[in-house]
Amino acid sequence: MSRDAVIRVSVSPGEVRVAGLVDDRLEAAWIERPFQPDGVGDLYLARVSAISPAMSGAFLTLSEGLTGFLPESELPPPRRPIAKALQDGLALPVRVTRAAQGGKGPRVTARLKPPELALAEGARAPALLKRGDDAALRLARAWDDAPIITDGAAMAAGLRANLDHGRITLHHGAVFDAELEEAFAELASPRVALPGGASLTIHPTPALTAIDVDAGSLAGSRDGVAHERMNIVAAQEVARQIRLRNLAGAILVDFAGLSVRRRDALVAPLAEALQGDPLGPQLLGMTRLGLMEIVRPRIHPPLHEVLGLPPTALTLGLAALRQALREVSARPGTPLRLVAAPELVQALAAAPQALDTYRLAAGRTLVLLPDRELRLGEERIEELPA
């Protein structure tokens, strides 16, 4: 990783935002909610609940209310058909390899290393044995020489327990500046601005993600060279947005202003732009309609499932808690209330861990006041009347 790389970890009530910057440009982004971990890397002593030869796998009870799927290919050796290798009720140590996403539960593997298997000794199924690494630690290990700056004391302590202490700085104050806050806010929008008025629009669907390139001021122009240059710039941003938003599965890209024949010239630039992705997405080529086909492994949930698109009541509520803490820092001791749409208040009430974190950080409770006249996005923070 470049010497000009840095990792910034912003900790706020109910949410951790991780930014990887190279030469001050956002190149990696993660948003996690500690009270809703995605579970990748978690170790369980699971119990087989249903064997499905037709699906070449088995469903396992990981914990109360949580079921995972074990593909036959993820059984430990020797290789045998799933119906012969397992039986209902069997206790089996597994690790989560893919988070629940797209309406499907987590996927697991039973191919574990001896230290992982040792954790299951003496446990009773079903049981969580160990949590996997969080986003900050994953990025820190991937960018193994990048300094890490965080505003969370517990986060700093956790990172120091696993990494060289000299890499980690506990910063007293916000670690996201206004530009970085804006960059993260843009990740919650389907539109991405490009130079010259061009843009990308990102459309997630249950089956695939479609990315449309709009030519902006070049729309209607017959200058093929200018269109090609614009699309090459778009290809670079497409690859970056796929990484930042953690888009996965099938991805189709519709470039702008070029005939299907001329779009062949974009295959090589797009393939090159995708090469820096740690998940190794594959550019499968171009369809007969001129759409570029990309497939990228599904591991962690895409950002639009974490935040919602448009942002959910919980996403907006956690952002309001973050803003309220900033106001408390600017006016210490001032009692505040959050006036918001009832569904936002309900979403925060269902996340008591986030409200408790706010209370500990602010030294007082944030009063929640539902207002039926307000819509999501119209919430406001006010000084509590005497």
Automatic annotation (TrEMBL):
Keyword Cell membrane: yes
Full protein name: Ribonuclease E/G
Keywords on record: Cell inner membrane, Cell membrane, Endonuclease, Hydrolase, Magnesium, Membrane, Metal-binding, Nuclease, RNA-binding
Domain S1 motif, residue spans: 41-113
UniProt keyword annotation of Transmembrane present: no
Pfam families, alphabetized: RNase_E_G
InterPro entries xref list: RNA-bd_AU-1/RNase_E/G (IPR019307), RNase_E/G (IPR004659), S1_domain (IPR003029)
Cofactor(s) named in the record: Mg(2+)
Protein's organism: Falsiroseomonas oleicola
